[in-house]
Specification:
Layout lengths: L5 E5 L6 E3 L4 H12 L7 H7 L19 H18 L4 H9 L1 H5 L5 E3 L3 H10 L2 E7 L5 H7 L8 E4 H4 L6 H11 L4 E6 L2 H10 L3 E5 L10 H9 L14 E4 L10 E3 L2
Parallel strand pairs: 1-4, 1-6, 4-5, 6-7, 7-8
Antiparallel strand pairs: 2-3, 8-9
Helix pairs in contact: 1-2, 3-4, 6-11
């Protein structure tokens, strides 16, 4: 058995897994399809209406007062209600739709893994790497991970809905380090250039940006694993500053799979 000596910090949504029918705007469309067939609002209208109010939209400010599932969802329900009434929905209709968001969004059956996820986690684990998930997500993330059978590969889940700190806040990364201890965190892998990549570099971690230019793009986790298992930056024993690699999506038609960008 290989002893785990170093840790990879992973983003979840958009990196390891995804909600099959889309995120928040699409979730509300699903609810509307049941309540009001014909969709009085478009996906773009809902997307625009939901661009503020979520805790990660104000990541510089900690939200410890929301570090409880019911309080977190009460806040989100209010955000959705205000967004819908701003689009012209009657208050009672908006409240009814918002009230169903929790069960609809967090339903484990709505979530899927990307094709390479399980094999890559298994490969890295076999080569002595442990795994921490650091995610801006809903309180039910652990249940989603259980349903996707990821829990056996993961040492810890650091979830902003439970800690009150959203990436790229420095404390989010410090909490990931604490969860990984005594093993050091070395890499952060994620699809968001600000929350994952910039946040990781500021925290002193190497960052691998598994880029997704479109919602339907698939991150190339095999290439990310190759960068970890064959690290050119460790060719000598001197400490290195945090570095960043950009990995093209599997289905983007890009010839170069990985490029060092920092």
């Amino acid at each position: 058995m290989v002893t785990r000596q170093r840790m990879v910090v992973w983003d979840f949504d958009g990196t390891l897994g995804h909600r099959r029918h889309g995120t928040w705007a699409e979730c509300l469309l699903e609810i509307l399809d049941h309540q009001q067939p014909g969709r009085p609002f478009t996906r773009d209208q809902l997307y625009t209406a939901l661009t503020s109010g979520f805790p990660w939209h104000d990541h510089l400010r900690p939200h410890p007062h929301l570090a409880d599932p019911d309080r977190w969802w009460n806040h989100i329900t209010g955000v959705i209600t205000r967004a819908l009434t701003g689009l012209g929905a009657p208050l009672r209709t908006a409240q009814s739709i918002a009230g169903q968001a929790r069960s609809t969004y967090s339903d484990p059956a709505a979530w899927s893994l990307y094709p390479q996820t399980t094999a890559v986690l298994r490969l890295l684990t076999a080569n002595g790497w442990g795994h921490v998930i650091l995610s801006n997500h809903v309180p039910e993330l652990p249940s989603i991970l259980d349903a996707l059978r990821l829990t056996p590969y993961v040492q810890a889940v650091v979830n902003s809905a439970c800690t009150g700190f959203e990436k790229p806040h420095p404390q989010a990364f410090e909490l990931a380090r604490a969860a990984a201890a005594p093993a050091p965190c070395v890499y952060m892998i994620g699809d968001n250039p600000q929350a994952d990549v910039a946040g990781a570099r500021a925290a002193g971690l190497h960052a691998i940006w598994v880029r997704r230019d479109e919602p339907g793009h698939i991150p190339d986790l095999d290439e990310a694993a190759r960068l970890i298992l064959h690290p050119a930056h460790e060719s000598n024993s001197r400490p290195t500053i945090p570095r960043t690699w950009e990995v093209a999506p599997l289905n983007a038609g890009t010839a170069a799979r990985a490029t060092r960008i920092g």
